[in-house]
Amino acid sequence: MRKMMMAVAVLSAASWLCVAQAQTVKDDMKDAGHDTAHATKTVAHKTAHGTKVAVKDTEHGVKVAAKDTEHGTKVAAKDTAHATKVAAKDTEHGTKVAAKETAHGTKIAAKKTATGTQNVGRRVEGKPVLPNHPEDQH
Q1: How far is Cα 136 from Cα 8, in angstroms, rounded to an integer?
Q2: Which residues of 77-106 are buried (b: 16+ CB within 10 A; e: fewer)?
Q3: Over the Cα atoms of the chain, what is R_g?
Q4: Fewest CB within a 10 Å sphere: which of 8, 41, 78, 125?
Q5: Which CA distances in Å does 137 have to 20, 104, 109, 132, 133?
Q6: Quick check: 11 and 5 in contact, CB under 8 A?
Q7: 129-133, Cβ contacts within 8 angstroms, sequence gap of 24 or more
């Protein structure tokens, strides 16, 4: 009988252990569900916050980039206008110098052509050749 009592006591304790364990698993599952819900809400909140910060930072970056681009465009336009004025002035000066040099060269060529033509005629007639003028030597 003693063995039987012992067996009943062991079986009784084992059944209580199973019941206690079943409640613990049930409680653990319930706690895990609550923890998962809490974690999901936390992640969603932090994601929403991060998205708002990213949008705000992006807007700020776009405004800064637009302002910098506008400034750079104005500086480039000013520099281009200045360079264009300088180039026009230099071109005008170069054109005047070239025109003056061309006119001078044309006069010299005309004088030399005239002298050469006269000398050909003088040679044909047997007369002495005329000298070139020193200012025409270039």
Answers
A1: 144
A2: eeeeeeeeeeeeeeeeeeeeeeeeeeeeee
A3: 54
A4: 125
A5: 127, 12, 10, 8, 7
A6: no
A7: none
Residue 11 CA to its chain's centroid (Å): 80
pLDDT per position as a tens digit, 56-75: 999 999 999 999 999 999 99
Q: How confident is the model at residue 55 (pLDDT cuts 50, 70, 90)?
A: very high
In the chain, how long is the greatest CA-to-CA distance? 172
Asked if 133 contacts 112 with a C-beta cutoff of 8 angstroms, the reply is no
Question: In this structure, are residues 100 and 90 in contact, taking their beta carbons and an 8 Å threshold?
Answer: no
Place of tokens 């909140």: 45
Q: Which of 90, 134, 92, 96 is nearest to 115 (CA)?
A: 134
Please compute the mean of the pLDDT values over residues 10-32 and round it to a whole number.
66
Tally DSSP H helices, then E strands, for the chain.
1, 0
